[in-house]
Amino acid sequence: MRYILLCISLIASEYLRAQDVYFPAGSTGAYEYYRLFITNADMLSRTDLALNRFERAPMTRKTWCASCRLMHQHDSATQDFRDYLSVENNSQINRYSKSKKPFLKYFYKEKAFFYKYQQKDENIFVINPVFNFTGGKESSSGATLYQNTRGAEIWGILGGRDKGVGFYTYFTENQVLLPTPYRYFTDSLNFVPNEFFFKPFKKQGAVDFFQARGYFTFNALKDIIKFQFGHDKHKIGNGYRSLILSDFAPQYLFFKINTDLGRVHYQNLFTQFTDNGPILSNILYGKKYGVFHRLSLDVHRNINIGLNEMVIFDRMDSTQSNQFDLNYLNPVIFYRSIESNLGSRDNSLMALDASWRIKNRFVVYGQFLLDEFNLNLIRSQPHWWANKYAGQIGVRAFDFLGVDRLDLLLEYNRCRPYTYSHKRPTQSYSHFNQPLAHPLGASFSEAVFEVRYKPGYKWFVNVTAIYARTGGDSSLTGRNYGANILRSYDTRVTEFNSRMFMGKTQELMIGEFMLSYMVKHNLFIDARANYRSYGASSVMFISLGLRLNCQARKFDY
Protein backbone atom coordinates (compact mmCIF):
# COMPACT_ATOMS: atom_id res chain seq x y z
CA MET A 1 0.00 0.00 0.00
CA ARG A 2 2.95 2.28 0.77
CA TYR A 3 4.33 1.88 -2.77
CA ILE A 4 0.91 2.38 -4.34
CA LEU A 5 0.37 5.64 -2.44
CA LEU A 6 3.87 6.81 -3.43
CA CYS A 7 3.10 6.18 -7.11
CA ILE A 8 -0.21 8.01 -6.80
CA SER A 9 1.43 11.04 -5.23
CA LEU A 10 3.92 11.20 -8.09
CA ILE A 11 1.18 10.85 -10.68
CA ALA A 12 -0.96 13.49 -9.00
CA SER A 13 1.92 15.97 -8.93
CA GLU A 14 2.52 15.43 -12.62
CA TYR A 15 -1.10 15.51 -13.72
CA LEU A 16 -2.81 18.06 -11.50
CA ARG A 17 -6.12 18.40 -13.33
CA ALA A 18 -9.48 19.76 -12.15
CA GLN A 19 -13.17 19.89 -11.33
CA ASP A 20 -15.14 18.30 -8.54
CA VAL A 21 -13.96 15.16 -6.80
CA TYR A 22 -15.42 11.92 -8.10
CA PHE A 23 -16.40 12.83 -11.61
CA PRO A 24 -14.77 14.41 -14.65
CA ALA A 25 -15.65 17.92 -15.66
CA GLY A 26 -18.27 19.02 -18.10
CA SER A 27 -21.99 18.50 -18.13
CA THR A 28 -21.83 15.17 -19.92
CA GLY A 29 -19.41 13.66 -17.45
CA ALA A 30 -21.42 14.73 -14.44
CA TYR A 31 -24.71 13.66 -16.01
CA GLU A 32 -23.44 10.24 -17.03
CA TYR A 33 -21.83 9.59 -13.67
CA TYR A 34 -25.03 10.56 -11.95
CA ARG A 35 -27.03 8.12 -14.01
CA LEU A 36 -24.43 5.36 -13.64
CA PHE A 37 -24.33 5.49 -9.88
CA ILE A 38 -27.97 6.27 -9.27
CA THR A 39 -30.39 5.25 -12.01
CA ASN A 40 -28.47 2.16 -13.11
CA ALA A 41 -28.66 0.71 -9.63
CA ASP A 42 -32.28 1.79 -9.10
CA MET A 43 -31.20 2.91 -5.64
CA LEU A 44 -33.88 5.52 -5.16
CA SER A 45 -37.62 5.42 -5.68
CA ARG A 46 -39.03 6.67 -8.95
CA THR A 47 -40.44 9.75 -7.28
CA ASP A 48 -37.06 10.62 -5.78
CA LEU A 49 -35.32 10.15 -9.12
CA ALA A 50 -37.67 12.46 -10.97
CA LEU A 51 -37.23 15.12 -8.31
CA ASN A 52 -33.54 14.80 -7.54
CA ARG A 53 -32.38 14.91 -11.14
CA PHE A 54 -32.81 18.68 -11.19
CA GLU A 55 -33.54 19.81 -7.64
CA ARG A 56 -31.68 23.12 -7.12
CA ALA A 57 -31.45 22.99 -3.34
CA PRO A 58 -31.05 19.50 -1.87
CA MET A 59 -34.10 18.52 0.18
CA THR A 60 -32.21 15.90 2.15
CA ARG A 61 -28.82 14.27 2.23
CA LYS A 62 -30.19 10.95 3.35
CA THR A 63 -30.94 10.29 -0.30
CA TRP A 64 -28.35 11.44 -2.82
CA CYS A 65 -29.73 14.74 -4.12
CA ALA A 66 -28.26 15.50 -7.54
CA SER A 67 -29.29 19.13 -7.52
CA CYS A 68 -29.27 21.65 -10.30
CA ARG A 69 -26.01 22.82 -8.78
CA LEU A 70 -24.56 19.84 -10.63
CA MET A 71 -25.97 21.21 -13.87
CA HIS A 72 -24.47 24.58 -12.97
CA GLN A 73 -21.17 22.81 -12.22
CA HIS A 74 -21.67 24.22 -8.72
CA ASP A 75 -19.48 22.36 -6.27
CA SER A 76 -21.90 21.79 -3.42
CA ALA A 77 -23.47 19.06 -5.51
CA THR A 78 -20.19 17.23 -5.12
CA GLN A 79 -20.69 17.06 -1.38
CA ASP A 80 -23.97 15.24 -2.02
CA PHE A 81 -22.12 12.85 -4.32
CA ARG A 82 -19.55 12.27 -1.60
CA ASP A 83 -22.34 11.53 0.86
CA TYR A 84 -23.77 8.93 -1.50
CA LEU A 85 -20.46 7.19 -2.13
CA SER A 86 -19.45 7.12 1.51
CA VAL A 87 -22.71 5.88 3.01
CA GLU A 88 -21.70 2.64 4.70
CA ASN A 89 -24.78 2.05 6.85
CA ASN A 90 -27.49 2.45 4.24
CA SER A 91 -28.62 -1.10 3.58
CA GLN A 92 -30.59 -0.17 0.46
CA ILE A 93 -27.53 1.35 -1.23
CA ASN A 94 -25.18 -1.40 -0.06
CA ARG A 95 -27.55 -4.04 -1.40
CA TYR A 96 -26.89 -2.77 -4.94
CA SER A 97 -23.30 -1.53 -4.66
CA LYS A 98 -21.62 -4.53 -3.03
CA SER A 99 -20.31 -7.31 -5.26
CA LYS A 100 -21.38 -10.87 -4.48
CA LYS A 101 -18.11 -12.34 -5.73
CA PRO A 102 -15.09 -9.98 -5.48
CA PHE A 103 -12.32 -10.69 -8.00
CA LEU A 104 -9.32 -12.29 -6.24
CA LYS A 105 -10.84 -11.12 -2.94
CA TYR A 106 -9.38 -7.60 -3.28
CA PHE A 107 -10.80 -6.29 -6.55
CA TYR A 108 -14.36 -5.21 -7.33
CA LYS A 109 -15.57 -5.58 -3.78
CA GLU A 110 -17.95 -2.85 -4.88
CA LYS A 111 -19.33 -2.89 -8.39
CA ALA A 112 -18.19 0.61 -9.30
CA PHE A 113 -14.60 0.33 -8.10
CA PHE A 114 -11.80 -1.90 -9.38
CA TYR A 115 -9.91 -1.28 -6.16
CA LYS A 116 -11.01 0.69 -3.11
CA TYR A 117 -9.14 1.22 0.11
CA GLN A 118 -10.99 2.93 2.93
CA GLN A 119 -9.79 3.65 6.44
CA LYS A 120 -12.92 4.52 8.39
CA ASP A 121 -14.19 7.80 6.96
CA GLU A 122 -10.81 9.51 7.04
CA ASN A 123 -8.94 8.11 4.02
CA ILE A 124 -10.37 6.76 0.79
CA PHE A 125 -8.42 5.66 -2.26
CA VAL A 126 -10.04 4.36 -5.47
CA ILE A 127 -8.50 3.26 -8.76
CA ASN A 128 -10.40 2.25 -11.89
CA PRO A 129 -9.12 1.12 -15.29
CA VAL A 130 -10.29 3.10 -18.32
CA PHE A 131 -10.59 1.91 -21.89
CA ASN A 132 -12.59 2.58 -25.04
CA PHE A 133 -12.19 0.29 -28.04
CA THR A 134 -14.39 1.42 -30.92
CA GLY A 135 -14.48 0.52 -34.61
CA GLY A 136 -16.64 1.91 -37.38
CA LYS A 137 -17.15 2.62 -41.05
CA GLU A 138 -17.62 5.88 -42.91
CA SER A 139 -20.12 5.81 -45.75
CA SER A 140 -18.66 8.26 -48.26
CA SER A 141 -14.98 7.28 -48.13
CA GLY A 142 -15.35 3.73 -46.85
CA ALA A 143 -12.64 4.50 -44.29
CA THR A 144 -12.33 2.25 -41.25
CA LEU A 145 -12.67 4.39 -38.14
CA TYR A 146 -11.34 3.47 -34.73
CA GLN A 147 -10.61 4.69 -31.22
CA ASN A 148 -8.10 2.97 -28.96
CA THR A 149 -8.08 4.47 -25.46
CA ARG A 150 -6.33 3.02 -22.40
CA GLY A 151 -5.73 4.62 -19.04
CA ALA A 152 -6.77 4.92 -15.43
CA GLU A 153 -8.96 6.99 -13.14
CA ILE A 154 -7.82 7.63 -9.57
CA TRP A 155 -9.55 9.57 -6.83
CA GLY A 156 -9.75 9.73 -3.09
CA ILE A 157 -9.78 11.68 0.15
CA LEU A 158 -6.97 12.11 2.66
CA GLY A 159 -7.89 13.30 6.14
CA GLY A 160 -11.68 13.09 5.96
CA ARG A 161 -14.38 14.75 3.91
CA ASP A 162 -14.76 17.82 6.11
CA LYS A 163 -11.13 18.76 6.80
CA GLY A 164 -9.15 16.62 4.38
CA VAL A 165 -7.90 16.98 0.84
CA GLY A 166 -9.60 15.34 -2.12
CA PHE A 167 -7.92 14.46 -5.40
CA TYR A 168 -8.98 13.25 -8.82
CA THR A 169 -6.76 12.10 -11.70
CA TYR A 170 -7.72 10.78 -15.13
CA PHE A 171 -5.15 9.97 -17.81
CA THR A 172 -5.34 8.05 -21.09
CA GLU A 173 -3.25 7.26 -24.14
CA ASN A 174 -5.26 7.48 -27.38
CA GLN A 175 -5.00 6.53 -31.05
CA VAL A 176 -7.98 7.75 -33.04
CA LEU A 177 -9.12 8.00 -36.64
CA LEU A 178 -12.07 10.40 -36.57
CA PRO A 179 -14.78 10.71 -39.23
CA THR A 180 -13.74 13.10 -42.01
CA PRO A 181 -15.74 16.23 -41.01
CA TYR A 182 -14.50 15.98 -37.44
CA ARG A 183 -10.82 15.79 -38.28
CA TYR A 184 -10.36 18.60 -40.81
CA PHE A 185 -9.24 20.88 -37.97
CA THR A 186 -5.93 19.01 -37.93
CA ASP A 187 -5.26 20.46 -41.38
CA SER A 188 -6.68 23.97 -41.06
CA LEU A 189 -5.96 24.97 -37.45
CA ASN A 190 -3.77 22.05 -36.47
CA PHE A 191 -5.73 20.74 -33.50
CA VAL A 192 -7.83 17.73 -32.60
CA PRO A 193 -11.23 18.88 -31.26
CA ASN A 194 -11.39 18.78 -27.45
CA GLU A 195 -7.70 17.81 -27.19
CA PHE A 196 -4.21 19.24 -26.78
CA PHE A 197 -1.08 18.51 -28.81
CA PHE A 198 -1.20 15.46 -31.09
CA LYS A 199 1.04 13.63 -33.52
CA PRO A 200 0.13 11.74 -36.70
CA PHE A 201 -0.42 8.03 -36.25
CA LYS A 202 0.19 5.50 -39.04
CA LYS A 203 -2.77 5.80 -41.41
CA GLN A 204 -3.24 9.25 -42.94
CA GLY A 205 -5.67 11.27 -40.84
CA ALA A 206 -5.19 9.21 -37.66
CA VAL A 207 -3.81 10.91 -34.57
CA ASP A 208 -2.10 9.94 -31.34
CA PHE A 209 -2.56 12.06 -28.22
CA PHE A 210 -2.32 11.88 -24.46
CA GLN A 211 -5.10 13.15 -22.22
CA ALA A 212 -4.62 14.00 -18.55
CA ARG A 213 -6.97 15.75 -16.16
CA GLY A 214 -7.06 16.07 -12.41
CA TYR A 215 -7.15 18.35 -9.42
CA PHE A 216 -6.88 18.76 -5.68
CA THR A 217 -9.80 20.09 -3.66
CA PHE A 218 -9.87 21.45 -0.13
CA ASN A 219 -12.83 22.34 2.07
CA ALA A 220 -11.50 25.55 3.66
CA LEU A 221 -14.66 26.27 5.64
CA LYS A 222 -17.13 23.41 5.94
CA ASP A 223 -19.89 23.68 3.33
CA ILE A 224 -19.10 27.39 2.82
CA ILE A 225 -15.71 27.91 1.11
CA LYS A 226 -14.01 25.34 -1.10
CA PHE A 227 -10.76 25.56 -3.08
CA GLN A 228 -9.77 23.59 -6.18
CA PHE A 229 -6.56 23.57 -8.16
CA GLY A 230 -5.48 21.58 -11.19
CA HIS A 231 -6.17 21.03 -14.89
CA ASP A 232 -9.62 20.37 -16.33
CA LYS A 233 -12.60 21.84 -18.14
CA HIS A 234 -15.60 23.67 -16.74
CA LYS A 235 -19.10 24.43 -17.90
CA ILE A 236 -21.56 27.08 -16.76
CA GLY A 237 -25.27 26.60 -17.38
CA ASN A 238 -28.06 24.07 -17.65
CA GLY A 239 -28.07 23.67 -21.42
CA TYR A 240 -26.72 21.26 -23.98
CA ARG A 241 -24.48 24.15 -25.02
CA SER A 242 -23.10 27.03 -23.01
CA LEU A 243 -22.55 30.53 -24.37
CA ILE A 244 -20.64 31.54 -21.21
CA LEU A 245 -18.12 28.73 -20.67
CA SER A 246 -18.37 25.28 -22.21
CA ASP A 247 -16.38 22.06 -22.05
CA PHE A 248 -15.54 21.98 -25.77
CA ALA A 249 -11.93 23.24 -25.55
CA PRO A 250 -9.28 21.05 -23.89
CA GLN A 251 -8.40 21.18 -20.20
CA TYR A 252 -6.47 24.10 -18.73
CA LEU A 253 -4.72 25.14 -15.52
CA PHE A 254 -7.10 26.72 -13.03
CA PHE A 255 -7.69 27.75 -9.45
CA LYS A 256 -11.28 27.93 -8.28
CA ILE A 257 -12.98 29.25 -5.16
CA ASN A 258 -16.61 28.44 -4.39
CA THR A 259 -18.49 30.22 -1.63
CA ASP A 260 -21.98 29.28 -0.42
CA LEU A 261 -23.94 31.52 1.92
CA GLY A 262 -27.52 30.34 2.12
CA ARG A 263 -29.23 31.33 -1.11
CA VAL A 264 -26.14 33.13 -2.43
CA HIS A 265 -23.46 31.23 -4.39
CA TYR A 266 -20.24 32.84 -5.59
CA GLN A 267 -17.56 31.33 -7.81
CA ASN A 268 -14.11 32.66 -8.71
CA LEU A 269 -12.22 30.94 -11.49
CA PHE A 270 -8.66 31.93 -12.41
CA THR A 271 -7.24 30.21 -15.49
CA GLN A 272 -4.24 29.96 -17.78
CA PHE A 273 -4.96 29.30 -21.45
CA THR A 274 -2.80 28.54 -24.45
CA ASP A 275 -2.72 31.34 -26.98
CA ASN A 276 -4.07 30.86 -30.49
CA GLY A 277 -1.70 30.58 -33.42
CA PRO A 278 0.25 27.81 -35.14
CA ILE A 279 0.38 24.76 -32.87
CA LEU A 280 3.82 23.29 -33.46
CA SER A 281 6.04 20.90 -31.56
CA ASN A 282 9.25 21.71 -29.68
CA ILE A 283 8.25 25.29 -28.82
CA LEU A 284 6.89 27.02 -25.74
CA TYR A 285 3.33 27.97 -26.58
CA GLY A 286 2.14 31.49 -25.86
CA LYS A 287 -0.01 32.01 -22.76
CA LYS A 288 -3.01 34.11 -21.94
CA TYR A 289 -5.17 34.23 -18.86
CA GLY A 290 -8.81 34.32 -17.90
CA VAL A 291 -10.79 35.33 -14.83
CA PHE A 292 -14.41 34.28 -14.42
CA HIS A 293 -16.85 35.31 -11.73
CA ARG A 294 -20.34 33.98 -11.20
CA LEU A 295 -22.63 35.41 -8.53
CA SER A 296 -25.92 33.53 -8.32
CA LEU A 297 -28.98 33.85 -6.13
CA ASP A 298 -31.81 31.43 -5.40
CA VAL A 299 -34.52 34.07 -5.59
CA HIS A 300 -37.04 31.32 -4.93
CA ARG A 301 -36.77 27.64 -4.14
CA ASN A 302 -37.40 26.96 -7.84
CA ILE A 303 -35.65 29.94 -9.45
CA ASN A 304 -31.94 30.73 -9.76
CA ILE A 305 -30.36 33.76 -11.44
CA GLY A 306 -26.65 34.18 -12.07
CA LEU A 307 -24.51 37.19 -13.02
CA ASN A 308 -21.26 36.36 -14.83
CA GLU A 309 -18.27 38.40 -15.87
CA MET A 310 -15.31 37.12 -17.85
CA VAL A 311 -11.99 38.75 -18.83
CA ILE A 312 -9.38 37.29 -21.21
CA PHE A 313 -6.00 39.04 -21.16
CA ASP A 314 -2.29 38.71 -21.89
CA ARG A 315 0.63 40.77 -20.59
CA MET A 316 3.44 40.37 -23.09
CA ASP A 317 6.33 42.74 -22.25
CA SER A 318 9.53 43.74 -24.02
CA THR A 319 11.24 40.55 -22.87
CA GLN A 320 8.40 38.49 -24.37
CA SER A 321 7.47 37.38 -20.85
CA ASN A 322 3.76 36.90 -20.31
CA GLN A 323 2.70 37.08 -16.67
CA PHE A 324 -0.59 37.02 -14.83
CA ASP A 325 -1.77 40.53 -13.90
CA LEU A 326 -2.04 40.48 -10.09
CA ASN A 327 -4.78 43.11 -10.19
CA TYR A 328 -7.13 40.38 -11.39
CA LEU A 329 -6.62 38.32 -8.24
CA ASN A 330 -9.22 40.55 -6.62
CA PRO A 331 -12.00 38.07 -5.78
CA VAL A 332 -14.76 40.71 -5.83
CA ILE A 333 -17.06 40.85 -8.83
CA PHE A 334 -17.17 43.72 -11.36
CA TYR A 335 -13.72 43.68 -12.91
CA ARG A 336 -14.72 46.35 -15.38
CA SER A 337 -13.70 49.09 -12.93
CA ILE A 338 -10.28 47.44 -12.45
CA GLU A 339 -9.88 47.12 -16.20
CA SER A 340 -10.72 50.81 -16.70
CA ASN A 341 -8.28 51.90 -14.01
CA LEU A 342 -5.52 49.92 -15.72
CA GLY A 343 -6.24 51.54 -19.07
CA SER A 344 -6.77 47.96 -20.16
CA ARG A 345 -7.01 46.55 -23.66
CA ASP A 346 -8.44 43.28 -22.36
CA ASN A 347 -11.38 41.28 -23.72
CA SER A 348 -14.26 41.70 -21.25
CA LEU A 349 -17.66 40.04 -21.42
CA MET A 350 -20.70 39.82 -19.16
CA ALA A 351 -23.59 37.40 -19.05
CA LEU A 352 -26.80 36.49 -17.25
CA ASP A 353 -28.05 32.94 -16.77
CA ALA A 354 -31.25 31.75 -15.16
CA SER A 355 -33.18 28.55 -14.49
CA TRP A 356 -36.74 27.92 -13.37
CA ARG A 357 -37.95 24.54 -12.17
CA ILE A 358 -41.64 23.88 -12.80
CA LYS A 359 -43.61 21.25 -10.86
CA ASN A 360 -40.61 18.94 -10.51
CA ARG A 361 -40.94 17.94 -14.15
CA PHE A 362 -39.48 20.78 -16.23
CA VAL A 363 -36.53 23.16 -16.10
CA VAL A 364 -36.70 26.29 -18.24
CA TYR A 365 -33.29 27.93 -18.60
CA GLY A 366 -31.51 30.62 -20.56
CA GLN A 367 -28.38 32.70 -21.02
CA PHE A 368 -27.68 36.16 -22.42
CA LEU A 369 -24.09 37.15 -23.14
CA LEU A 370 -22.97 40.69 -23.89
CA ASP A 371 -19.58 41.29 -25.48
CA GLU A 372 -19.92 44.91 -26.61
CA PHE A 373 -22.80 47.25 -27.37
CA ASN A 374 -23.78 50.88 -27.61
CA LEU A 375 -27.35 51.52 -26.46
CA ASN A 376 -27.85 54.50 -28.78
CA LEU A 377 -26.51 52.59 -31.77
CA ILE A 378 -28.62 49.51 -30.95
CA ARG A 379 -31.64 51.75 -31.42
CA SER A 380 -30.42 53.74 -34.41
CA GLN A 381 -27.98 51.29 -36.03
CA PRO A 382 -28.96 47.74 -34.95
CA HIS A 383 -26.48 46.25 -37.45
CA TRP A 384 -23.44 48.10 -36.11
CA TRP A 385 -20.59 45.59 -36.04
CA ALA A 386 -19.87 46.07 -32.30
CA ASN A 387 -23.39 45.18 -31.20
CA LYS A 388 -22.02 41.80 -30.17
CA TYR A 389 -24.22 39.51 -28.11
CA ALA A 390 -25.51 35.94 -27.87
CA GLY A 391 -28.57 34.31 -26.36
CA GLN A 392 -29.90 30.91 -25.35
CA ILE A 393 -33.32 29.59 -24.34
CA GLY A 394 -34.13 25.98 -23.54
CA VAL A 395 -36.24 23.53 -21.61
CA ARG A 396 -35.55 20.14 -20.08
CA ALA A 397 -38.36 17.69 -19.36
CA PHE A 398 -37.93 14.77 -16.96
CA ASP A 399 -40.06 11.61 -17.05
CA PHE A 400 -41.85 13.18 -20.00
CA LEU A 401 -45.56 12.34 -20.34
CA GLY A 402 -45.22 10.16 -17.27
CA VAL A 403 -42.78 7.78 -18.97
CA ASP A 404 -40.19 6.70 -16.44
CA ARG A 405 -36.65 7.91 -17.23
CA LEU A 406 -37.61 9.58 -20.50
CA ASP A 407 -35.81 12.94 -20.53
CA LEU A 408 -36.10 15.53 -23.31
CA LEU A 409 -34.22 18.71 -24.13
CA LEU A 410 -35.12 21.46 -26.60
CA GLU A 411 -32.75 24.40 -26.98
CA TYR A 412 -32.16 27.41 -29.23
CA ASN A 413 -28.88 29.37 -29.47
CA ARG A 414 -28.09 32.51 -31.45
CA CYS A 415 -24.88 34.54 -31.68
CA ARG A 416 -24.09 37.80 -33.54
CA PRO A 417 -21.05 38.18 -35.84
CA TYR A 418 -17.72 39.18 -34.25
CA THR A 419 -18.86 38.10 -30.77
CA TYR A 420 -16.01 36.60 -28.67
CA SER A 421 -13.37 38.08 -31.01
CA HIS A 422 -10.97 40.87 -30.07
CA LYS A 423 -8.78 43.50 -31.66
CA ARG A 424 -5.79 41.45 -30.51
CA PRO A 425 -6.32 37.87 -31.74
CA THR A 426 -4.26 36.67 -28.78
CA GLN A 427 -7.13 37.78 -26.53
CA SER A 428 -9.95 36.05 -28.36
CA TYR A 429 -12.33 33.95 -26.25
CA SER A 430 -10.49 30.75 -27.08
CA HIS A 431 -8.01 28.18 -25.82
CA PHE A 432 -5.61 26.18 -28.00
CA ASN A 433 -7.37 27.50 -31.14
CA GLN A 434 -10.73 26.23 -29.86
CA PRO A 435 -13.74 28.27 -28.64
CA LEU A 436 -14.32 28.55 -24.92
CA ALA A 437 -18.04 28.87 -25.53
CA HIS A 438 -20.00 27.46 -28.49
CA PRO A 439 -18.03 25.23 -30.92
CA LEU A 440 -19.50 27.10 -33.93
CA GLY A 441 -17.79 30.33 -32.87
CA ALA A 442 -20.05 33.25 -33.86
CA SER A 443 -22.60 34.32 -36.49
CA PHE A 444 -24.89 31.32 -36.14
CA SER A 445 -28.30 30.20 -34.97
CA GLU A 446 -28.87 26.67 -33.74
CA ALA A 447 -31.67 24.40 -32.55
CA VAL A 448 -30.89 21.28 -30.49
CA PHE A 449 -33.24 18.42 -29.66
CA GLU A 450 -32.14 15.55 -27.44
CA VAL A 451 -33.90 12.49 -26.05
CA ARG A 452 -32.43 10.30 -23.31
CA TYR A 453 -34.34 7.17 -22.41
CA LYS A 454 -33.55 4.26 -20.13
CA PRO A 455 -36.02 1.51 -21.03
CA GLY A 456 -34.45 -1.06 -18.72
CA TYR A 457 -31.93 -1.58 -15.99
CA LYS A 458 -29.03 -1.96 -18.44
CA TRP A 459 -30.26 -0.19 -21.58
CA PHE A 460 -29.67 3.43 -22.59
CA VAL A 461 -31.00 5.20 -25.68
CA ASN A 462 -29.78 8.63 -26.75
CA VAL A 463 -31.09 10.52 -29.81
CA THR A 464 -29.72 13.93 -30.80
CA ALA A 465 -30.82 16.22 -33.64
CA ILE A 466 -29.09 19.54 -34.38
CA TYR A 467 -29.90 22.12 -37.03
CA ALA A 468 -27.78 25.26 -37.43
CA ARG A 469 -27.36 28.07 -39.91
CA THR A 470 -23.93 29.66 -40.07
CA GLY A 471 -22.09 32.46 -41.79
CA GLY A 472 -18.42 32.12 -42.56
CA ASP A 473 -15.29 33.25 -44.34
CA SER A 474 -14.33 31.63 -47.61
CA SER A 475 -10.96 30.71 -46.05
CA LEU A 476 -8.88 31.27 -42.93
CA THR A 477 -7.30 34.34 -44.52
CA GLY A 478 -10.25 35.51 -46.60
CA ARG A 479 -12.57 38.42 -45.81
CA ASN A 480 -13.57 38.52 -42.14
CA TYR A 481 -17.35 38.17 -41.86
CA GLY A 482 -17.33 37.65 -38.11
CA ALA A 483 -17.73 33.88 -37.70
CA ASN A 484 -14.09 33.03 -36.91
CA ILE A 485 -13.45 34.26 -33.36
CA LEU A 486 -9.68 33.81 -33.77
CA ARG A 487 -9.44 36.75 -36.20
CA SER A 488 -9.01 40.41 -35.22
CA TYR A 489 -12.21 42.39 -35.53
CA ASP A 490 -10.12 45.21 -37.03
CA THR A 491 -10.21 43.20 -40.27
CA ARG A 492 -14.06 43.31 -40.37
CA VAL A 493 -15.76 43.82 -43.70
CA THR A 494 -18.41 46.29 -42.56
CA GLU A 495 -19.13 49.00 -40.02
CA PHE A 496 -22.91 49.41 -39.96
CA ASN A 497 -24.14 46.44 -41.96
CA SER A 498 -23.11 43.51 -39.79
CA ARG A 499 -25.89 41.00 -40.32
CA MET A 500 -26.37 37.41 -39.28
CA PHE A 501 -24.89 34.71 -41.54
CA MET A 502 -22.75 37.12 -43.58
CA GLY A 503 -20.28 35.65 -46.03
CA LYS A 504 -20.65 32.02 -46.94
CA THR A 505 -24.04 31.02 -45.52
CA GLN A 506 -24.39 27.28 -44.90
CA GLU A 507 -26.69 24.90 -43.10
CA LEU A 508 -25.48 22.28 -40.63
CA MET A 509 -27.57 19.22 -39.81
CA ILE A 510 -26.52 16.49 -37.40
CA GLY A 511 -28.50 13.45 -36.40
CA GLU A 512 -27.29 10.72 -34.08
CA PHE A 513 -28.75 7.57 -32.59
CA MET A 514 -26.84 5.76 -29.85
CA LEU A 515 -27.84 2.56 -28.08
CA SER A 516 -25.83 1.42 -25.06
CA TYR A 517 -25.99 -1.79 -23.05
CA MET A 518 -24.29 -2.10 -19.68
CA VAL A 519 -22.61 -5.52 -19.55
CA LYS A 520 -21.20 -4.98 -16.08
CA HIS A 521 -21.25 -1.92 -13.87
CA ASN A 522 -19.78 0.97 -15.92
CA LEU A 523 -18.84 -1.41 -18.79
CA PHE A 524 -20.82 -0.50 -21.91
CA ILE A 525 -21.34 -1.76 -25.44
CA ASP A 526 -22.21 1.21 -27.68
CA ALA A 527 -23.85 1.09 -31.10
CA ARG A 528 -23.93 4.43 -32.88
CA ALA A 529 -25.11 5.91 -36.17
CA ASN A 530 -24.22 9.53 -36.95
CA TYR A 531 -25.19 11.67 -39.94
CA ARG A 532 -23.72 15.11 -40.63
CA SER A 533 -24.53 17.45 -43.49
CA TYR A 534 -22.80 20.80 -43.88
CA GLY A 535 -23.23 22.85 -47.01
CA ALA A 536 -22.85 20.59 -50.02
CA SER A 537 -21.11 17.74 -48.22
CA SER A 538 -22.61 15.00 -46.09
CA VAL A 539 -21.09 12.07 -44.20
CA MET A 540 -22.58 9.16 -42.29
CA PHE A 541 -20.75 6.71 -40.09
CA ILE A 542 -21.67 3.75 -37.92
CA SER A 543 -19.63 2.35 -35.05
CA LEU A 544 -19.58 -0.33 -32.40
CA GLY A 545 -17.51 -0.02 -29.25
CA LEU A 546 -16.74 -1.26 -25.78
CA ARG A 547 -15.89 1.28 -23.06
CA LEU A 548 -15.20 1.16 -19.36
CA ASN A 549 -15.33 4.08 -16.93
CA CYS A 550 -15.25 6.79 -19.59
CA GLN A 551 -17.54 8.88 -21.75
CA ALA A 552 -18.29 8.25 -25.38
CA ARG A 553 -16.72 10.87 -27.65
CA LYS A 554 -19.23 13.45 -28.86
CA PHE A 555 -19.74 14.25 -32.55
CA ASP A 556 -22.11 17.22 -32.42
CA TYR A 557 -20.37 20.19 -34.07
Question: How would you describe this structure in keywords?
Answer:
mainly beta; disordered N terminus; 557 residues; 9 helices; single chain; Porin; 18-stranded antiparallel barrel; two-stranded antiparallel sheet
Parts with pLDDT < 50 across at least 5 consecutive residues = 3-96
Number of helical elements: 9
- Specify the CATH homologous superfamily: Porin
CATH topology, by name, is Porin
Gap from first CA to last CA: 45 Å
Task: Describe this protein's structure.
The chain is globular and about 70 Å long. The protein has 9 helices and 22 strands. It has a single domain (2-548), classed as Porin (Beta Barrel). With 557 residues, the chain is mainly beta. It has an 18-stranded antiparallel β-barrel. Strand 21 (523-534) and strand 22 form a beta hairpin. The chain has helices at 2-14, 27-39, 46-52, 68-71, 76-86, 91-97, 185-188, 336-341, 375-380; strands at residues 115-119, 123-138, 144-158, 165-177, 198-200, 207-221, 225-232, 252-261, 264-274, 287-300, 303-313, 347-358, 362-372, 388-397, 406-415, 430-431, 434-435, 444-456, 459-470, 506-520, 523-534, 537-548.
Short note summarizing the structure:
This protein is mainly beta. The protein has 9 helices and 22 strands.
Per-chain topology:
Blueprint: H1 2-14, H2 27-39, H3 46-52, H4 68-71, H5 76-86, H6 91-97, E1 115-119, E2 123-138, E3 144-158, E4 165-177, H7 185-188, E5 198-200, E6 207-221, E7 225-232, E8 252-261, E9 264-274, E10 287-300, E11 303-313, H8 336-341, E12 347-358, E13 362-372, H9 375-380, E14 388-397, E15 406-415, E16 430-431, E17 434-435, E18 444-456, E19 459-470, E20 506-520, E21 523-534, E22 537-548
Antiparallel strand pairs: 1-2, 2-3, 2-22, 3-4, 4-6, 5-6, 6-7, 7-8, 8-9, 9-10, 10-11, 11-12, 12-13, 13-14, 14-15, 15-18, 16-17, 18-19, 19-20, 20-21, 21-22
